[in-house]
Amino acid sequence: MQPPYHRLEEFVPLTGSDEGLVRRFAASSRKIHRGHAIRREGDHVGGIFFLMEGWVASSMMLREGRRQIVKVHLPGDMLGMPSLSLSRAGETLEALTDVVVSVIPCPALGRMFIENPRLAVGLFLSTQKERVALMQSLSWIGAASALERLAAFLLDLHSRLNAAGLTRADGFDLPLTQQHLADLLGITPVHVNRTLKRLDQAGYVQRSRGRIVIADLAGLRAVAANAPPRFADHEAWTRLGSPSGNHIPDPRAG
């Protein structure tokens, strides 16, 4: 199986040795069936997960027992990164489809930061992209209408799936239920259904048996909560001075 490492090389050009390390991570992959938890909130944190195939939801439970989905993960994503800073896992990772994940133990991740700084910088910048995504989703929940939220989410999915090579003719499979979308966007399933119909009737999207086609990309962007962010790509690596060794420069020098 070819590892989907597009997320790791979006900011840092990977070398052959970098790709070899990713393949070694992928060699320890295991399959998780749909509806099963990869790791639950409160579990021991023994490492992170590299998503090889399938869709995963990251969610948190509120005090009264309601679930809030905070992220839908796609192939190439690293799962469970935020919990590295916690004593116990802070999120539940649930397989929305059958998935294949590779487990990267904490010690292996720590060695990567020392022995493979290029890959470590790529991972660091990728986590900043996740922070931007979180900032955007918070802005949707706080100030946007259901139509604006759903339009922005579909645009985000389309962009991420396209980067992973998982779109066809501007369309993609959508394995999320209306309850999943409601838990993610902070609206009711009934409101999700009505909003999808509005987008369909307006000609922005076409729905058919769990598949979404973006029929009017410009129109969908016009009604979305905010414009998609423009990432720096490999320029981000250049900004950091293209670090490639273990030497830590003296900030007083130069």
TrEMBL record:
InterPro entries: cNMP-bd_dom, cNMP-bd_dom_sf, Env_Response_Regulators, HTH_CRP, RmlC-like_jellyroll, WH-like_DNA-bd_sf, WH_DNA-bd_sf. The keyword Transferase does not apply. It holds the Pfam family cNMP_binding. The keyword Transcription regulation applies. PROSITE patterns: HTH_CRP_2. Gene3D superfamilies: Jelly Rolls, Winged helix-like DNA-binding domain superfamily/Winged helix DNA-binding domain. It comes from the Bacteria. Residues 144-218 form the HTH crp-type domain. SMART domains: cNMP, HTH_CRP. This is CRP-like cAMP-binding protein. It comes from Sphingobium lignivorans.
